[in-house]
Design brief:
Elements (H helix, E strand, L loop, with lengths): L1 H4 L3 H19 L5 H23 L9 E4 L6 E5 L1 H27 L6 H17 L4 H19 L8 H30 L4 H10 L6 H18 L8 H6 L3 H26 L7 H23 L4 H21 L3 H22 L2 E3 L2 E2 L6 H7 L1 H15 L5 H15 L3 H26 L9 E3 L1 H19 L2 H4 L3
Antiparallel strand pairs: 1-2, 3-4, 3-5
Helix pairs in contact: 2-3, 2-5, 3-4, 3-5, 4-5, 4-11, 4-14, 5-6, 5-11, 6-7, 6-11, 7-9, 9-11, 11-13, 11-14, 12-13, 12-18, 13-14, 13-17, 14-16, 14-17, 14-19, 15-16, 16-18, 17-18
Length: 480
């Protein structure tokens, strides 16, 4: 029995670290609470990362570990190459977010130890959602992630929009949870099980077609995950939520939530739907949703001046590309895209938290003009990061988007590939506005600019990785 638990050690260890950090935070002196829990949290996440490195199995969906229920009929937990790779990426994102949050929270007088605890519980929820073929366990993991994020969004109470954003996120998240729970109940009603495996067997045996209830269940579960990922037309809430959200949580939502939702979708579809050739109509519908997300994200970003909303629409645009990867069941391309996307988002969030203008973190793209006037090299770095996110060659996101389009062409979806290219051009057009704001602005007044050294160093390190992966993208591809 103990041998079975070994692959689950990262999750068990993280749960222990979370409880230990909570106890330390409660019993520490008020002025030491955040510092102590921060050290424990960072150390714990690094140890979890090492455990994942040790326990990473073969790639793909091949499961190497199961814990059965009492009846020995359904798998409750598993680990696989896909799940472990996603958890490794989630762990790295959590470490970076925690590092940039420390100076940010200090500047907002919000260095409370609960922030670190909530990040750990959100990460644990992400692990659980990825480590199961059971709909109920997956739902519990997503809820643990979501409830932690509801609190994190409104954590910095000095912001006037923080509570508004947190409330809206909670309401939309509750709707998504209700849809998923109703879908799960319909699955159990029709098949007597909530296992992905049993669902796949039920679909395979339904030669006369699926019942209305079962079809509705799959649609509801998929819609709920679309809410989590912010796939158009269910993306309506994201811009408003991220507008009032603190920047570290913005980075976490833009990366970890996307990883969890997309990988859960991949696992769900790969297991229950099986051969793509038998589900052509379903895949065409999913491609349309993906292209709609690419289009909506690109168009709305064109007129946006708020940095937070720009990042929201960029995440919607990139979610469309990643949905196409999940639909094609292309594991290598999905992970390649996720790694590059998360790296660029984290670098951008770190960049906008590296300095203050007039004592405040910048809120609009136009504020880059102040940075360009006093430190044009660092401002150029920010512009190039936005170019990278848009997929402009020769930067790394170009290779990621090209891999998706290449996959569409290889599978015969030429029209979808052409539309993806056309819609992406709108995102590239936004880069011209960024150049205008940064270097052609009429702002000439001198302003005080404060640099946050630790975050600036982290920005350079992340940017260096982007340069390396842009020169040699095969480094990431070889990992999967």
């Amino acid at each position: 029995m103990f041998e079975q638990l070994i692959p689950l050690l990262p999750e068990i260890y993280l749960a222990g670290v979370t409880l230990f950090a909570l106890l330390v935070g409660i019993f520490s002196k008020p002025d030491q609470q955040f510092k102590n829990t921060f050290v424990i949290s960072i150390s714990g996440l690094v140890a979890v990362f090492a455990l994942f490195i040790i326990n990473v199995p073969s790639v793909g969906l091949e499961s190497v570990f199961f814990i059965k229920d009492a009846g020995e009929t359904e798998s409750l937990f598993f680990t696989s190459g896909l799940a472990s790779s996603a958890k490794l990426l989630i762990t790295l994102c959590a470490i970076v977010i925690m590092m940039i949050s420390k100076p940010y929270l200090a500047s907002r007088q919000s260095q409370k130890f609960e922030f670190n605890i909530l990040l750990l519980t959100a990460t644990l929820g992400a692990y659980v959602a990825l480590s199961t073929y059971n709909l109920i366990i997956m739902f519990i993991g997503l809820e643990l992630l979501s409830f932690s994020l509801y609190v994190l969004v409104g954590f910095v109470r000095q912001s006037q929009n923080a509570m508004k954003s947190a409330t809206k996120y909670f309401i939309v998240g509750s709707i998504a949870s209700a849809l998923m729970l109703y879908g799960i109940s319909l699955v159990y009603l029709t098949s007597g099980s909530v296992s992905y495996i049993v669902m796949a067997e039920h679909i395979a045996q339904s030669t006369a077609g699926l019942s209305f209830e079962y079809t509705l269940a799959i649609i509801l579960i998929t819609m709920a995950l679309f809410f989590k990922i912010a796939i158009a037309p269910l993306q309506f809430y994201l811009a408003d939520v991220l507008q009032g959200c603190n920047r570290p949580t913005l980075g976490y939502i833009s990366t970890v939530s996307k990883i969890v939702g997309l990988v859960v979708l991949y696992q769900f579809w790969a297991i229950i739907l099986g051969d793509k050739s038998q589900n052509q109509d379903f895949y065409h519908v999913m491609f349309i949703f993906g292209l709609l997300s690419i289009f909506v994200g690109s168009i709305y970003a064109l007129k946006e001046e708020s940095i937070n909303k720009f990042l929201a629409y960029s995440s919607i645009n990139n979610a469309g590309f990643m949905l196409v990867c999940s639909t094609m069941l292309d594991f290598n391309t999905l992970m390649f895209y996720l790694v590059n996307y998360c790296l660029v988002i984290l670098a951008l969030v770190s960049f906008i938290l590296s300095f203050k203008v007039r004592g405040e973190y910048i809120k609009k793209i136009q504020d880059l003009a102040f940075i360009a006037k006093q430190n044009h090299k660092f401002a150029l770095l920010g512009v190039l990061l936005i170019f990278t996110l848009a997929g402009v060659p020769p930067f790394v996101m170009f290779y990621a988007k090209f891999a998706v389009i290449k996959g569409l062409v290889a599978q015969g979806f030429i029209v979808y590939a052409v539309l993806a290219v056309v819609f992406s051009i709108f995102a590239v057009a936004y880069c011209l506005r960024v150049i205008k704001f940064a270097y052609l602005s009429t702002k000439q007044e001198d302003v005080s600019i404060q640099t946050i050294t630790s975050t600036k160093v982290l920005t350079y390190l992340l940017s260096l990785l982007i340069v390396i992966f842009s020169i040699s993208p095969n480094i990431i591809a070889s990992l999967f």
